[in-house]
Design goal:
Order of helices and strands: HHEHHEEHHEHEEHEEHHHHH
Number of domains: 3
Largest sheet: 5 strands, mixed
Strand order of the largest sheet: 6-5-4-8-7
Structural class: alpha/beta
Length: about 230
């Protein structure tokens, strides 16, 4: 808790007090920045519950946590980590707390990047091939295994609903759509490519570099010939 508060004071100094003293920030701008940081601070204090942390606070609190888990007030998302149903019912969850090092991919990533209008029915998470992952009954999670050579291609960091997550970038998402076109359907694949090409910030050079690494460049080139 002390680390969170000290970090929060640092953010307030950098974003409010310093600009106010040296940059003549307007009062309205100060209020806006303060509100944004307040809600970010509140989100950061609502992290999943670690049993090791609770143990350090005393046996009574630890046993109380276990009772809440038995009564269904808390849900075990992985060994030693618990969350409330409210925390797990939002648009995003703490991916790293449930699947350490997991990367949001496929339907989940396509939806976040607005490459398709289809809504994911689960959180799709990529992990190294051969890794055994224990997932909770809720929320619904689908694990996808990738080889080490392609697992980290196109990984980026994003903050969604206050949670810092690993997710594949837009170009990697397009390549995955081509790679799994037979599973997701050619209509969805075509939709994803079409939406990507409409973006002014598209990076065809990066897209083709990824496509070569993922061995889908020949198929992707055929799609691009039709759409460009």
């Amino acid at each position: 808790m002390e680390k969170i508060i000290s970090r929060d004071y640092l953010v307030l100094w950098q974003n409010i007090y310093y600009p106010f003293l040296y940059k003549r920030t307007t009062f309205i701008e100060i209020c806006s920045i303060f509100v944004q940081n307040y809600f970010m601070y509140m989100r950061n204090t609502e992290q999943f519950i670690s049993s090791s942390t609770v143990k350090g606070q005393g046996r009574s609190k630890y046993y109380k946590m276990l009772d809440k888990a038995k009564q269904g007030e808390l849900i075990q998302v992985r060994r030693g980590v618990y969350a409330t149903a409210e925390q797990l019912s939002g648009n995003m969850i703490d991916i790293d707390a449930i699947v350490k090092g997991g990367i949001l991919c496929l339907w989940s990533a396509w939806n976040i990047h607005k490459l398709t209008t289809s809504m994911p029915q689960a959180f799709h998470i990529a992990v190294p091939r051969g890794r055994k992952v224990t997932i909770p009954a809720f929320p619904q999670i689908e694990i996808h295994h990738y080889t080490g050579k392609v697992l980290n291609v196109g990984v980026m960091k994003m903050t969604i609903d206050g949670f810092a997550i690993n997710i594949y970038d837009v170009e990697r998402c397009v390549c995955d759509a081509v790679k799994f076109r037979n599973k997701i359907g050619t209509d969805v694949c075509s939709e994803i490519i079409g939406n990507y090409l409409e973006r002014p910030e598209r990076n065809i050079s990066k897209l083709m570099d990824y496509a070569k690494l993922l061995r889908v460049h020949t198929t992707l080139e055929k799609y691009l010939e039709v759409k460009l």
